[in-house]
Automatic annotation (TrEMBL):
Family: Belongs to the GcvH family.
Species whose genome carries this gene: Streptomyces thermoviolaceus subsp. thermoviolaceus
Modified residue annotations for N6-lipoyllysine: K65
PANTHER family from the UniProt entry: GLYCINE CLEAVAGE SYSTEM H PROTEIN (PTHR11715), GLYCINE CLEAVAGE SYSTEM H PROTEIN-RELATED (PTHR11715:SF3)
Name assigned to this protein: Glycine cleavage system H protein
Assembly, per entry: The glycine cleavage system is composed of four proteins: P, T, L and H.
């Protein structure tokens, strides 16, 4: 399992892309989390226009094994959700870092507690 180096990771297994020129970053869950969940069958994502807060729940993912809360790695306003994941939640399992992204957020403040790819990998190998 390889976590992309350009992303940052939360202890709750979400990833965050670097913000674009408009301050918008993409959020998803890691391959580690997707594998732990099993086959994702339902995704409840935050509403576009809503505010998410770093470290707080903003949705949930339901799999054949369990229901897991989705945590926002940053504080900001949701600008887009991945409708493809709502329609086909298995994208979270098949491509967690590509087509399986969950939502985009205009970052209000840069997070300071996210992990690098190496730190995240080390956390989950122990």
């Amino acid at each position: 399992m390889s976590n992309p180096q350009h992303l940052r990771y939360s202890k709750e297994h979400e990833w965050l892309s670097p913000a674009d020129a408009d301050g918008v970053a993409t959020v998803g869950i890691t391959e580690f989390a997707a594998n732990a969940l099993g086959d994702v069958v339902y995704a409840q994502l935050p509403d576009v226009g809503s505010t998410v807060t770093a470290g707080e729940t903003c949705g949930e993912l339901e799999s054949t094994k369990s229901v897991s809360d989705l945590y926002s790695p940053v504080t900001g306003e949701v600008t887009e959700i991945n409708q493809d994941v709502v329609d086909d939640p298995s994208l979270v399992n098949s491509a967690p870092f590509e087509d399986g992204w969950l939502f985009k957020v205009r970052v209000a403040e840069e997070p300071t507690d996210l992990l690098t790819a190496d730190e995240y990998t080390a956390q989950n190998e122990g």
